[in-house]
Amino acid sequence: MNTFTFSKNQQQFENEFLLSFNESFEESLWKKKKKQVDIDESKYFKTIDETNESTIQLFGNKTYLVLSKSIEQWSEYTLILDISIPNFPTFHEHLTIFSTNSETGIYITHSGKICLFNDGKVNQSKIILKLNEYMRLLIMVQKKYIEIYLNGILQIHSHIDIDQFTLENNRIDLFRELDSSMNTTNDDIVRIECKSITFLNGLIESDLINKQLKSSNYSLTSLVALPYSLIASNLIAIGYKDEWIKLAMKKYNTTNSQLIDQIIRENKDELLKTDHDNQRKQDLLILSRLNPLIELENISEFNNDDEITFVGQIICDCEDFK
Fold first, then answer.
1. Same domain, 8 and 139
2. Domain span at residue 289?
């Protein structure tokens, strides 16, 4: 499970797992973006009035977002997007939400309805979206069908072939217009806003599609959160300490194992130093308890571990002599 939200006054994308594009996708360019922050990333973010949140704004018809996912093929998955539409597309055009290829896609029509295009067939929602109002869009792809919910209410249920919406590579493109002639939004016009993105390699049980999905204001944490044991197992297996994992999760408010791995790798020296300092404090405390004549305040001034070990050995030798 991966969730991305954006904080007040945010100026850039926080990590390589969510990035923006304003040009055709190229693998080499993606790798470059992962390593180097674009100087103009701030233009994508806008603080939402009277909140501690920001939203991503995509202008024109060339901008889109790229999410990193595992290399494994996904045939069943869930997307939850909190989006707002400033304007409906021009007549006979559409606004793409999600597409896996030119033959399938989920988009918003010029009449303001959600539309599923699949193998030449079109399914539309009954309701018309409200402009300039955040809505929670849930897309659930299973092996034989796809469901689309808006604010917790089912809008589209359609049968699909097993591979029509399968994600076969290591990324997910969002809001990408594959055919620019179908959306001619000018570069100075906001096409869509998105304040939260959640994607899950799996499905949400129907009976869990409750109040949390009825509004973009509700947290999704309890709905999609994985148990800690599942998050930590692989990280512990590669040598990370339980305390490091919990610290990264708490400090960065994430359960994304890829992000936790990156955080620990980037801060490993600091984490090791903290471990060493904590162990040193514990050793000093033990020494002060072994001999009441030793004051903790004095031995805390020792410069290195060898001095602590030396004093400890003397104490032990004295105890043996007694």
1. yes
2. 269-321
Same domain, 74 and 101: yes
d(C-alpha 166, C-alpha 276), whole Å: 47
pLDDT, tens digit, for every residue of 259-288? 888 889 888 898 888 887 777 777 667 666
DSSP secondary structure string for all residues of 196-231 = EEEEESS---GGG-SGGGS-TTS--HHHHPPPHHHH
Shared domain for 313 and 197, answered yes or no, is no
Mean pLDDT value across the chain: 85
Range 120-128, long-range pairs (CB < 8 A, 24+ positions): 121/158, 123/156, 123/158, 124/156, 125/150, 125/155, 125/156, 126/155, 127/153, 127/155
> At a CB cut-off of 8 Å and minimum separation 6, what does 203 contact?
76, 77, 78, 140, 142
Tens of pLDDT, residue by residue over 100-118, are 888 899 999 999 999 999 8
Backbone angles phi, psi at 285, to 5 degrees: -65, -40
Q: Assign residue 175 a region: left if phi > 0, alpha if psi is -120 to 50, beta otherwise?
A: left
62-85 pLDDT, tens digit per residue, is: 999 999 988 889 999 999 999 999
How many beta carbons lie within 10 A of that of residue 93, not counting itself? 19
Query: How many domains in the chain?
Result: 3
Dist. CA 174–CA 137, nearest whole Å: 13
Is this structure's pTM higher than 0.85? no
CB–CB of 83/134 below 8 Å? Answer: yes
End residue of a domain, out of 225, 244, 278 = 225
